[in-house]
Amino acid sequence: MAQSIIGRVLEKLFVLLLREPAPLVGVEEQFQWIHRELSTGTESRFGFTEELIDVAYDVEDVIDLLILKAAAQGRRRGILEGFILFICDFIDQSQLHKKLELIKVKIPALPPPVVIPCARSHSADIEEIDWACSSSVQDQSLANTVVSPVIEKATALLAQEYIHPEVKKKVRRVQDKFSLMNGFLKDIEAVELDDRGMVWMEELCDISRSAVDVIGLFINRREQLKRNWGGPLMRVILALDNFLSQHEFSIQMDQLHTKLLDISARRPKIVHGDSRSREVGISFSELLQKLRERRIQLEQGVENLDFVSFDDDVHALVTRLLADDNHFFVVSVVGMEGTGKTTLAKLIYHNDAVVNHFHYRAFGFELLKDVRKPFGEPGSSMSPEKRAQPFKAFLADKRCLIVLDDAHDESFKNEMITALRDTSNGCRMILTSWVTELPSNLQIGSLYYGLRLRRDDESWTLFTHAMKISIPQELLKFRREIVRRCGGLPRVIVKLANALSQKEATIEEWSSVLQQLDGDQDLWSNALSRINKDLPLYMKRCLFYFGLFPKDLDIPARRLIMLWVAEGLVQPEGGNEAPEDVAERYLIKLIAQGMVQVTQKKLDGTVKTCRLPYVLQQEWLAKTQEATFLQYHAKTRSELSPSTGLIRRLVDHLDNEDVSFGHIHGDENTTSTSLKPHYQDVLSFLSFDAREGSKPGEDVGNFLHECISSSCFLLLRVLDLEHVFRPKLPKQLGKLTRLRYIGLRWTFLQMLPSSISKLQNLQTLDLKHTYIDTLPSSIWKVQQLRHLYLSESYRSKFMLRPRVGSLTSLQTLWGLFVDEETPVKNGLDRLVNIRKLSLTCRLTPSQDEAMLQQLEAVSNWVLKLNHLQSLRLKSDDADNQPWDLDLKPLSGHANLSRVYLLGRLKNPSIVSEFPESLTDLTLSGSRLTEDPMQTLDKLPNLKILRLLSKSYVGKEMLCSLGGFPKLRILKLWKLELLEEWNVEEGALQALHDLEIRSCLKLKMLPQGLRQRTLWNLKLTDMPNDFTT
């Protein structure tokens, strides 16, 4: 460790001597002596001890002060200010001489190196090992999650002025300890840790969280002091406060350093190497036999998995395979065993359009028989290029489709890729695999297509289709149990359907089969094994979080993502990447690997809700409870800290056998002495008490009050009370200064405590579906706030105008009510980093002119939002009827993908000026007189279009040839004047969902759609004579 610190200090010192001569006037000789002493034979003259590190930190502190001084001298100043600075420089120069002389005294007094006899084996002390030199693995996400946040906070603090040198030294010490862990953490990702190793890892994560919180709070405190800097008396008071806060912070740094020394000494041992083996090569005859066995096994396992399960997948992939592109292209179908990868490949292989398009098709070993080539003899030294020559010759003049699955030898796959990658006759390859990363030679010119577990409705459709008998009415009550136990895995669903088809259709027989099923442990055992062996530790920590939720709860994806971010489980690797985007990628990866089941999707195909599959709930979470990494007390569902045994993540499932039930719900007398042993280390509190009436809110409120009064919950990062009816938030909520997430959605809460302004680390405040109409003015002081969700239906609004620099980190502002008093101009329009914006503008009687000015201000604000991704604007009058909506062209918003506009468009031409990035568009009350289809059909990425009530008031509508190339969902509601709708051939080629509602003058479905097979055609409140 000392080596890298000395190297860093010498590099800074060299740069200062070379490039910044001005600050060194009068002390240059002393610096040169220090540089010479530290750079000449340091290792042979001094031991790499704490004393040497201490001297290095002293030197670094002086260097940093001089660099800051040089920067300050470059700024222009007035005469009086210049005179004051001259006096200060004189004093500083005197102090600088003293510091340098003290350093010159310390260096010769450093202890000599300890000589260790060569004959004696010696395990170096942990502080002598430079962890950064450890070998690394490809995935660095764990190191990013644990180390990077600390480094970022420490770097930000060290760049500030007027911090005591001893404080800086302690921050550097902690920063360096974390920096040197990077390599070791990368090594940990490459192995499977035992229970003790998992405990160690979670302890390190706790220390990292504490360091980020402590440094972050100290920085925020200093920022507040700067903002409040006032008259002479106030300056004295604040200077004293600054001194006390630095003293307290120094103690906290000492505590963190002690913990780091302790955990470093207990680091787990790493056993390198991968126990998994892979076949190097097999003979041609052995390969054919292996593939025949595999083919028989697959056909037996999936014979009933037909098009009913894969219509959407087949359509998507066939479209890509038949694309007008002569370059070689690979589709990699990825998913866990049993999801139907090979079945999907077979359906595509035998698809009529595919059969007609390709001159030659081969399903794996069929190509080997046609080519008649010896293959892969063990020990063969022939290069892949030479081995691929027979394939190249055979396929040279053929537009071919080759399908290879998991059973095919890697060298065979590489040969096929080598043979085809340079072809230009439209050849395609389909690979099926459970591995979620593509081979390096497939990264270009390939499509990753993940097969997920099926939703409950899809599972039931597949089950009823696979049943060989009709299901009696009295057995339909088993529907929920069947889809839950199958976990969305198609092969398990079909296996269960086959088993039940052979039994009598009675409640007793079906109950017996379901009890014996247990989710088909043999099939799921592979998935469980891969979680333990292959899933990176940072992903496991995210997966563990599912254990906090009720087992049958469909967890909203947005809730899960926000909680992961608040807990610090994800960390962006790039400077411009939002942590929420990283968390979403984690979730998608877990879904693709079959470890998380999607239970509901949004119209645009994104995940709405999800849960763990049944078997993972039963088996894997049970295993984690046995391990100490995610320990659960025998009498609580809450997670315990592995180092202290205290509750770390507190969950209330309204279970009266839980040890916390009496504390939360008032069955026990609680005092500070009775609460503190349980709750002083709690990081998260989630309540799932969704009972009706006032008791849930009173219980939670009293519990929070008692805990805060008892100095508990002071480490709390997450307070999630979603669906708890009107929790009585205590006035002392502001004491929970480490809070990052407050979830109050569906609580119908009426008021927030004003002390919320003290929550300087708060990132997410979710007030959707509450009765809070006016936010406290102190909300503007929450500087780290990134996501603010308000209650659109209850007219939540701001009142006071924000100060310059308020809420600059805000990215989501959803559900804000705007009236003539809302501070938009020179207020809200300063929030220019918004990504998601939802506003409701309401006209009040006799305020027409004022609201028109507000609408213009909103329009100008939207124009400045260069990062905007989602926009929802509503404008209505006192009778809830659409009113004027002013909006300027949005073509410059390159990231904008979703737009919802309700109101009479003052500038109808904006319909032709939406950005090409748009995927989802809703218009309502727009009163367009010209056919919007003639301009919207040119949007290349539009997938969802809703034309709702009075959005178009014309009589005719036309979808032209080639228009709407990607539109999948079209909804036409209450277009009361529409009489004729025509669709030309070649338009709406991707459409599969069409809903027409209350278009009373429309006489028939367009001729161009009558011959189409739409997956979902829904007609509501249409005339009886409407022709389809």
UniProtKB/TrEMBL annotation:
Domain Disease resistance N-terminal: 146-227
Domain spans labelled Disease resistance protein winged helix: 548-612
Record has Isomerase as a keyword: no
Domain NB-ARC: 311-465
CDD domains: RX-CC_like
Domain Disease resistance R13L4/SHOC-2-like LRR: 708-998
Superkingdom of the source species: Eukaryota
Record carries keyword Nucleotide-binding: yes
Keywords annotated in UniProt: Nucleotide-binding, Plant defense, Repeat
Protein name: Disease resistance RPP8-like protein 2
